[in-house]
Amino acid sequence: MTVRALYLCEGSSDTGLRFHIEAIAADMGREILVTVPELNRLPNKPGHSVEDKLRAAQRLSDSGHAYDLVVIHRDSDREPPDRRRTEIAEAMAAVSPGVAHVPVIPVRMLEAWLLLDQAAIREVAGNPNGKVPLNLPKPARVESVADPKAVLKQAIATASEERGRGLQKLQTRFSANRARLLQMLDREGPVGQLASWQSFANDLCDALGNSR
Fold first, then answer.
1. Which of 96, 109, 106, 31 lies closest to 70, judged by CA?
2. What are the C-alpha distances in Å from 179 to residues 17, 52, 120?
3. Are the C-beta atoms of 137 and 111 separated by less than 8 Å?
4. What is d(CA 178, CA 169) in angstroms, rounded to the nearest whole number?
5. Strand 3-8 relative to strand 32-35: parallel, antiparallel, unpaired?
6. pLDDT in tens, the chain (212 residues)
């Protein structure tokens, strides 16, 4: 049976997680069809809450309840991850009761996951053979970095070794480079040491295992 999955993310540069959802399913021998709705094409833009996004995705769906599984990305920001889990569960109960869901809750923000792959950062910076130190945080403390987005942006700039106009052009591509980094994320690499990634992967495996 093909699992029909809806993936709701916080921003357009987060869509790359769908490839990891598909890869984890493939590792389990499951066939999955992941839909990432373009909520911004709705005439009335949805709010930022999980419930608003779920209702908007429902309006875009042909049947309203066309999914076996919903994967929802919500950065913890300054909230405890358990509070985000409750927020997601309550939204699902209100909009799609009975449908399985998997929360994706990076601590603070998803950029923390992307800070763990030095080679990928050098690649997207356009300087894969660079040697300049990037001083990236270790897995044990990466999710305590106050502003991982700013640290990632600086790491890409440092890795590029660009100056002046070249650096300015690179900075304008940050969203695209961030999206590439998410697609390139090595699931077998350091990110696997993070409790937030483990929770996502384990919850997804459990949901896929129960959907037979």
1. 96
2. 9, 24, 12
3. no
4. 15
5. parallel
6. 899 999 999 988 999 999 999 999 999 999 999 999 988 777 787 888 999 999 999 888 765 558 999 999 999 998 999 999 999 999 999 999 999 999 999 999 999 999 999 999 999 999 999 999 999 999 999 999 999 999 999 999 999 999 999 999 999 999 999 999 999 999 999 999 999 999 999 999 999 998 76
Contacts of 84 (CB under 8 A, 6+ apart): 74, 75, 76, 103, 105
DSSP state of 138: P
Task: Tell me how far apart the alpha carbons of residues 78 and 100 are, in angstroms, rounded to a whole number.
Answer: 26
